[in-house]
Amino acid sequence: MRVLVVEDFEVLARAIGTGLRREGMAVDVVLDGDDALAHLAGTRYDVVVLDRDLPGTPGDDVCRDIAAGGAGSRVLMLTAAGTVRDRVEGLGLGADDYLPKPFDFTELVARVRALGRRSAPAVPPILQAEDLTLDPSRRVAFRGGRRLELTPKEFALLECLLAAGDRVVSTEELLERVWDEAANPFTTAVKTTVRRLRAKLGEPPVIETVREGGYRIGVPR
Question: The whole model's pTM is what?
Answer without folding.
Answer: 0.66
